[in-house]
Amino acid sequence: MLRYILKRAISLIISLCLASIIIFAVVEIAPGDPASFMLGINAQEDTIAALRAELGLDQDKLSRYFTWVTGMIQGDFGTSYTYRSPVAEMVTERIWVSLPLALYALLISTLIAFPAGIYAATQRGKSGDLVVMGATQFGIAIPNFWFAMILVVIFALKLRWFSAGGFVEWENGIFKSMKSLTLPAIALALPQASILSRVMRSALIETLSEDYIRTARAKGFGKRAVIWRHALRNALIPVLTIIGLQFSFLMAGAIIIEQVFFLPGLGRLVFQAITQRDLIVVESVVMLLVFAVITVNFIVDVTYAVADPRLRRRV
Amino acid sequence: MRSGSLIFGVLLSALVVIAAGLSFLWVPFDITQLSIPDKLQTPNKLHWLGTDHFGRDILSMVMIGARTSLAVALLAVGIGFFIGVPLGLVAATRKNSIIDEVIMRTNDLIFAFPSLVIAILITALFGAGAMNAIIAIGIFNIPVFARVSRGAALSLWQKEFILAARVSGKSDLRISAEHIFPNIANLLIVQGTIQFSLGILAEAGLSYVGLGTQPPIPSWGRMLADAQTMVSFAPHLAIIPGTAIIITVLGLNLLGDGLRDLLDPRVRKSRE
Fold first, then answer.
1. Between chains, do A274 and B197 touch, taking CB under 8 Å as contact?
2. pTM (2 decimals)?
3. Which CATH class is domain A96-311?
């Protein structure tokens, strides 16, 4: 057991190191010097050189990479070129928009997917199943930013139930803040809910065909009792994996939705930083997102290994 | 019923492909001609799907946009296929070796990157445009194809006909190319269809934020971005390109599902 965790931990560390190298390299080889970008086209050579020195861009690549990595380990993500404020601070500010948004979307997606998936599985092959599965096909095919636009037209512009964009800060009350995240969360949740419903359905169908389910039925348990007491619990494993994956996707994938709703989240921060050549922000936020994904996967793997001894042997 | 989804998928996909193909030969109106007096018309007899804010015919733009979307997504699938499949096959021939380890761990690593953020990063840093969008989307197709082909190839390597090929003295490379690849081609076609539809969505997303196909070439994502400020008084500007995306993605997904059922007898049986 311990050996397995150790092995996974080592591969986690290697992955993180490689990820940091890749991110640094991509940003490095990209054309466009942040200093000349910040100063504009009319800047003097010596002014650019001075700014480069100030930003630490004149040092060699290797030492800059190590400064960046060691800084991050200590919680120092560097200073934004454009805003001249610590990246860590900017990230902390933004995360209070992105994290609740991701959790909200995940909640909506789960609340839709569980009943839909369970219903479809129990109605397998009947018209109810076909309707749910047809709806999920649509849900997957709809681009979420387009769905977001349609939601804005209906619920913000026509019905005026929600605002068309922007974020109400948490100081103004949780209800107001959550309200401003509602349309973005619904837009984000739709494709996720469709995927999750399908996973839920197929996982449940698979468990329902197991021998122990037949045994339980033979012992006289009703269909409903079997689903709730036996099948659902076992079907949850693949569903939880997908929820784990969706969470990291929602954290990072909100980038376009945040653009549509003008939400000051992490995605919008990266997007702005990319267009402003604020490379230190780009590197650090992307690294943070990758760190989140890799770590979530690690935790999921280890939890399974603890829960299910069969998985340990496979590695 | 299942073959119904295949037929529906084929019909929808064919509609898009025909529209794209036809646009090379003929479109109802020349979209390079701006005609401000005709702007923002709702669908009518002359302009079947209406006109945009420059008075351009939306049907013509959607048709040319189909061409752009299909081309970008197809080339991105091509990148994934032509790099990913050989990597997966090599990994399968050398199971548990260093090469296998390196290929599969690199795959895991690419999976860990938030694809949309990286695609935006690549297109923004190296220049917005269709070519960089293709590369950015294509990179994330590589691990998908590598994983699928490795998994499928591994089980084939246990089969007797492969053993027979080995006994006859064929090299691993030749076996992979002559025996393994044809046998996993079905699976790869299904996966290709799924990646194709994901590519359409990704291209639309990138163009929507201004990093995909650049004007004046029409693209569905770009049309949606233009529509955003006018959507309250001209909703057809957003509804039509959005519907085009949905039809394409839905068609491809149904096609992929249908093909899988058709090509994989086990799925067919379990569904019956």
1. no
2. 0.86
3. mainly alpha
